[in-house]
Amino acid sequence: MTGFLFELSFWLAAPVWLLMIFAPGWGPTARVAASPWTVTPVLLVHLVLAIPVFPELWAAVSSPDVDTFRDLTVRANGAGAVWAQVIAWDLLIGQWMYRESRRLRVSPLAMGPLLVLTILLSPFGLSAFLLLRAARTRRTDRAGAAIV
Asked: CB atoms < 10 A from the CB of 122, how many?
């Protein structure tokens, strides 16, 4: 059951990612990406996985050290709960990146690979996007346009 829930957490987020990458200009994509509720199914999976290991989870977050965290992730439900949490937060980051890219008029051809990178390695994808955003904002500011 844990293996199924581990995989399910990604598949619940995948439709939103697919919309943002492959249909960025479609009207419903913007509405979906603007909703924080997209992560709710993934968070429900997180709860199902986290509740059985809550004492270990609490120990890992309330007094963090590498050994306590390793003890949590050795347990299937612990690793699954952490994975579902990562999937949920990555999706929220991706949605923000999508909305910002639309606001800044970043080409979908540039954003597609950045969103894929964010799915796989979110710190790298977010860092690359923040650099792109800073450059775009700086260029807009120099052109005399108002920055929102």
From this structure: 18
